[in-house]
Each structure stands twice: as C-alpha cells, then as structure tokens.
C-alpha cells in the first residue's frame, strides 16, 4: 500500500516538473535577445588625392561594420519592452567608431504596442535619417554616393544623444516620427535637438518628409549632439569649419516608386548652418536615382546629385554621379563594385567625394570601389 502511494507521489511530482518546464519554455519564448552584425571591406581607388592617385583598403563601403544586440519581451496585451545596443567599428584596424563609444551607433530602451506605437529613450537616429535614409541612393550603392560632406546627415555622420523618440503605428499607410534630444544642461537652448516627420507607404510608393533642428551643436560632450561626434574639420567649405555653427537645420522630402523590376527615386534636402561669426552656410541637394533588378541576384543602381552651396555673396555647386552593381551570393553575403565622379565649380576649387581620405587638387575627383559584405 505504501509502495503504491509512493509511486503515485513520484508520478505526480514528475508530471508537475514536466508542466513547469513546459510553462518555462512558453515564457522563454515570449522573450528573446538576438545577436546580429555586418562586416564589410574592400579596396578603393581614387584618381586624385591632393595631386596623387591612391589604392586603399577601406571598410564600411556599403554598410558600416557593426555588431549589436536586439532584445524584446512580451508584456501581454500587445505591449512589448525592447532594447537595442549597437557597436560600430573599423574592420581594417579593429578600432571603435563614433568617437570610440562602446555602443556608438545606437543604444536605447523602450516600449511598443501595435495600437500605441513605439516610445524609445537613448542614443538614436533623428527623424530625417529614419525617413529619408531609405530613399537616398547611398542606401543601395556605397556610402561615398552620399551628398557632399554628408551635409544633411542622412549618412549618419552623427547621432542624437539623450533622445526621446515616438513613432506612431501605421494608419492607412501613414506614420509619424517625433524626437527630442535633451541638452542635459540648465536651459533648453544649449546643445539640444528636435526633429519631426511623416512617411507614407502604399503598394509601390514609399514617400516621406522630415525636419531636424540642432541648437548649439557640438558645444559640449554631454549634449544631444556631442562635440566628439559632429562633423569633422575636413567638412570645411569656403574656409568655414562646421563646428562653429550655432544652429543647424535640415529639411527634406522624397519618394521612391517601383515599376516592375525598376525603382525610381527623387529626393531634395536642404541644410542651413547659422555660423558663430555671423551669416549662414547653406546647402541644397537635388537627387535622382534608378535601381533595377537585372536578375533576382544582380542589382544595378545609378544616381545623380546637384548640390548648391552658398555663404553670403559667395556661391558654388557640385555635380556628383554614381553607379554600381551588387551581386547576391546568398541572403547574407554580396559582392559589389561602384564608380563615383564629382565635379566642383571653380569658386569651390576642390572636389571631395564624401568618405574619400583627402580632396582632389583639382575641381574633379574619380573613385572606384569593390568589396565584400556579409551579414549575420
């Protein structure tokens, strides 16, 4: 009798343990942390860097090398907690990017819901980058095809610290995006930032418009736009260093439209730097692009940008053309080859494709890049 009761007791315990393990597995399935990344490297040839041609090993030609962690936890009722920590680095020498930060590309935590949208807090991309980044041709070609000096920051020259961002749910194809970056100092006007925009997706159409404003950018290391992660001194135009800007404003609108195997794109962005010494430095970028799937694995793309530059009575312009091929070896690995050409007006004096190590000694510069990218 006692032996029979003991067997029943063991069976009950084993059933309880098994049920507990099943429940634990179900709960675990509601939470996840994903490790991901991109490694990208190649060789770049430039016909003129300060009067000399150059062959260089270059990393991050198509996509900046990175590794990151993306986490989510299902809180029930359609509500989730999320986080992302993303490190950027130079694949050629292993050095950390974004001013040496451990998670310089992105670092945020937030909550999201299907009907409520997403609220995130931390180091993030602004609304212009979120909405217009997918339209610019550099999203398909190498990053050298971005607008001169990345003056509109669509190629992510800098991110926004201390940021609170809200992205609405998509309703009838429309989605709004709002962000505010705190200065973390007394007052609200010193090194803070805000941006707003709207995107629309319907069938083959992807369109958007956005605005971003940075007050006293790079005036401190702790503000929304940190002094160690703003424009480099190489971005000087007409002898003016962008770090001396008291305010930067970026605005733009664009769209892509898919027709069969082809995708057409149009984009306009404007950038206005109010300078500490007085006056303003202004850029206007007009871009047209074409992407075409020759086969499911082979993609061709081309883009042209006309950029107007003005400061006071001085003005100039850039013409920039880019084209390339991308071949998908698998879902995660591709090879690419791109060519780029830039011509600057005589008033500007020197061509300088963004991302090339040094300017040309003349008003034109030509570059070719080939490489390999793998995602994990």
TrEMBL record:
GO terms for molecular function: porin activity. Keywords: Cell outer membrane, Ion transport, Membrane, Porin, Signal, Transmembrane, Transmembrane beta strand, Transport. Residues 1-29 form the signal peptide. GO terms for biological process: monoatomic ion transmembrane transport. One of its GO terms (cellular component) is cell outer membrane. Residues 21-343 form the Porin domain. Its main location: membrane. It is a multi-pass membrane protein. It is found in: Cell outer membrane. CDD domains: gram_neg_porins. The keyword Ion transport applies. InterPro entries: Gram-neg_bact_OMP, Gram_neg_porin_domain, Porin_dom_sf, Porin_Gram-ve, Porin_Neis. Homotrimer. This is Porin domain-containing protein. It comes from Paraburkholderia sediminicola.
């Amino acid at each position: 009798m006692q032996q029979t009761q003991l067997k029943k007791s063991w069976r009950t315990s084993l059933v309880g343990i098994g049920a507990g393990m099943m429940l634990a597995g179900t709960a675990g399935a509601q939470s996840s942390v994903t490790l991901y990344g991109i490694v990208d490297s190649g060789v770049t040839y430039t016909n003129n860097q300060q009067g000399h041609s150059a062959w260089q090993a270059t990393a991050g030609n198509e996509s900046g090398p990175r590794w990151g962690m993306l986490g989510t936890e299902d809180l029930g009722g359609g509500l989730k907690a999320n986080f992302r920590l993303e490190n950027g680095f130079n694949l050629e020498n292993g050095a950390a990017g974004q001013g040496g930060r451990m998670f310089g590309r992105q670092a945020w935590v937030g909550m999201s819901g299907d009907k409520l949208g997403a609220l995130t807090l931390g180091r993030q991309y602004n609304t212009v980058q979120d909405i217009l980044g997918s339209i610019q041709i550099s999203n398909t070609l190498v990053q050298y095809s971005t607008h001169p000096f990345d003056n509109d920051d669509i190629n992510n020259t800098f991110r926004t610290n201390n940021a609170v961002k809200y992205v609405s749910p998509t309703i009838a194809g429309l989605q709004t995006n709002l962000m505010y970056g705190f200065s973390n100092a007394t007052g609200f006007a010193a090194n803070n930032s805000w941006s707003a925009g709207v995107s629309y997706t319907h069938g083959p159409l992807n369109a958007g418009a956005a605005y971003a404003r940075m007050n006293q950018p790079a005036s401190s290391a702790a503000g929304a736009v940190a002094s160690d992660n703003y424009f480099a001194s190489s971005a000087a135009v007409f002898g003016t260093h962008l770090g001396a800007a008291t305010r930067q404003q970026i605005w733009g609108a664009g769209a892509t439209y898919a027709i069969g195997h082809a995708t057409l794109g149009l984009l306009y962005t404007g950038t206005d730097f109010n300078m500490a010494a007085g006056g303003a430095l202004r850029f206007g970028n007009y871009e047209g692009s074409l992407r075409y799937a020759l086969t499911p694995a082979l993609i061709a793309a081309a883009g042209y940008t006309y950029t107007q530059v003005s400061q006071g009575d001085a003005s100039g312009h850039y013409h920039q053309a880019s084209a390339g091929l991308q071949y998908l070896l698998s879902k995660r690995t591709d090879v690419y080859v791109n060519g780029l050409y830039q011509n600057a007006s005589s008033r500007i004096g020197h061509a300088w494709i963004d991302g090339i190590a040094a300017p040309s000694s003349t008003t034109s510069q030509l570059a070719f890049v080939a490489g390999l990218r793998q995602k994990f």
